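Deliverable D2.4 — example input (structure tokens):
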């Protein structure tokens, strides 16, 4: 009878809704949206400032390869419109510092355009 009571306690502890919000959040967080990609410095090869459609943009060149062979990765780029040149420079430095510190970056995508950047940190 004791093993059943023990497993019942474990099930109740792991049941949804028993955790307080923010108390034991996994890092990186689970994908809450279909178009949210979580990436880190290992997959970002370049952070580029460029002009796309006569607007300033920061372009991230990503390479998410297959798990079994990283040399077969296919690079692709995603861009974020950032305003003036000064704002773009500050944002690109912030992205670089964030990724170099070991934290992840959440990218909400619409095609190859980044709609929203999320600087993810463990709580």
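Example output (designed residues):
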């Amino acid at each position: 009878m004791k093993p059943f009571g023990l497993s019942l306690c474990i099930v109740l502890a792991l049941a949804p809704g028993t955790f307080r919000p923010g108390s034991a959040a996994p890092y990186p967080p689970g994908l809450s949206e279909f178009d949210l990609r979580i990436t880190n410095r290992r997959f970002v090869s370049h952070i580029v400032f460029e002009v796309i459609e006569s607007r300033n943009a920061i372009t991230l060149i990503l390479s998410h390869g297959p798990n079994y062979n990283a040399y077969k990765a296919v690079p692709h780029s995603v861009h974020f419109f950032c305003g003036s040149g000064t704002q773009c420079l500050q944002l690109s430095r912030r992205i670089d510092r964030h990724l170099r510190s070991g934290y992840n970056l959440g990218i909400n995508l619409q095609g190859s355009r980044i709609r929203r950047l999320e600087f993810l940190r463990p709580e």
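Strands lie at 36-39, 44-52, 55-63, 75-81, 105-110, 113-119.
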